[in-house]
Amino acid sequence: MMECCPAFTREDAIWAFSFMIGAIYSWQLIDHRYDRMIGAKSSQTMDRVNADIVEFCCSGIHAMAALRTPRA
């Protein structure tokens, strides 16, 4: 991660990793807590959810990196 985000400190990378793992863990909860909110007729496929969570995590890490990058 730090190679892709050279403005990151070690601490930044650890926090970004923690946020990413938290999002993935929350999505994978076995108790299906989100099913009640979404409803039984969810149109999400496993492939779409996977693509969304990857995009979400990558975009968040890129946003953090942008905040740490010095502006000219």
List the helices and strands and how they pair.
Layout: H1 10-27, H2 33-38, H3 46-68
Helix pairs in contact: 1-3
How does this model look, in words?
- By secondary structure, the protein is mainly alpha-helical.
- The protein has one domain (10-68).
- The chain has helices spanning 10-27, 33-38, 46-68.
- α1 (10-27) runs antiparallel to α3 (46-68).
The backbone outline, from C-alpha atoms, is: elongated
Unreliably modeled segments: none
C-alpha Rg (nearest Å):
15 Å
The overall pLDDT, averaged over residues, is 83
Oligomer category: single chain
Beta-strand fraction estimate = under 5%
Query: How many H/I helical runs?
Result: 3
What is the N-to-C order of secondary-structure elements (H for helix, E for strand)?
HHH
Largest sheet: none
Helix content: 55-70%
Termini separation? 23 Å
User: Based on DSSP secondary structure assignment, what is the total number of beta strands?
Assistant: 0
Domains, number: 1
Secondary structure category: mainly alpha
